[in-house]
Amino acid sequence: MSRPAASRMSACCWRSLFAEVQPQRQFRRSLVTLQRGPVEKLEVPSDLPSQYWSQLPTRLKPDRGKREIVIHEAPRSEAETCKDPISVVDNSQLALLDPTGARAKLFDKTNKDRAKVGDVLLATFTSGEPVSGVILSIKGSGGPHTSVLLRNNLTGIGMEMQVKVHSPLVQSMEIAQRAPKRKRRARIYYLRKPEHDVGSVQKVVDQYLRQRAMLTGGKPGSQLGRFRSKKGKR
């Protein structure tokens, strides 16, 4: 047991001696971390033979001319040619949908005889039965999107219908009766309440049709019976 211990101690002594004799390794640094000065830009020799020009980049070739930058003129602004495009489109649509201008005049705010809220309006269509009712509101500022909301009472049930004024399906619009007094509101939705509901306007429309037939010399008829199919006698 004494020999291995002595050999171990001798080995440790020799290692300590060799560590003092052996020179320590110096700290090394890569070339990338070395401080370098600014990169100097080398110019292409002016007397470089032409056979070496193909090896140069395109931007460094001596025979390359300067690139001319073409500056195009700015396109004409549409805002300068057309100050109000919405009105132009509205007028073109009105000329197509209402060539005579009678429908637009009926709801024109500058017209004293225009249709107002509270009036009874009769609207006939190219197909189907006509619709009549009290005007609850008029939406739109006189353009092709103008519409009216009509309210009537059929079989004891309130009925409302939004009618586009300039729709191609609308054949005519007539005022059957004027409101007795000017309404203070632009939308008289309070007529939906039972205490303010005017009820059915069928009698008012039938009386208007009879008066119109007497003036024009036509045959008077009811609004609902004008478009009913004729049946045989029983």
Describe the protein.
- By secondary structure, the protein is an alpha+beta fold.
- It has a domain at 85-216: SH3 type barrels (Roll), CATH 2.30.30.
- Helix content is 24%, strand content 17%.
- It is built from five helices and five strands.
- It has helices spanning 2-21, 78-81, 85-97, 102-106, 202-216; strands at residues 120-125, 131-139, 147-154, 157-164, 170-177.
- Strands 4-3-2-1-5 form a five-stranded antiparallel β-sheet.
- A hairpin with a 5-residue loop joins β1 (120-125) and β2 (131-139).
- The protein is elongated and about 135 Å long.
Distance between the termini: 141 Å
Structural class: alpha+beta
Q: What is the tally of beta strands? A: 5
CATH top-level class of the domain at 85-216:
Mainly Beta
User: How many separate helices?
Assistant: 5
Instruction: Classify the fold: give the CATH topology of the domain at 85-216.
Output: SH3 type barrels
The secondary-structure element order is: HHHHEEEEEH
List the uncertain runs.
224-234
Gross morphology: elongated
Strand order of the largest sheet: 4-3-2-1-5
Major sheet = 5 strands, antiparallel
The helical percent reads 10-25%
Q: Quote the average pLDDT.
A: 82
As a whole number of angstroms, the C-alpha radius of gyration is: 48 Å
The amount of beta strand, in percent, is 15-25%
The CATH architecture classification of the domain at 85-216 is Roll
GO molecular function: structural constituent of ribosome
Protein name: 54S ribosomal protein subunit img1, mitochondrial
GO cellular component, one term: mitochondrial large ribosomal subunit
Pfam family, one: Ribosomal_L19
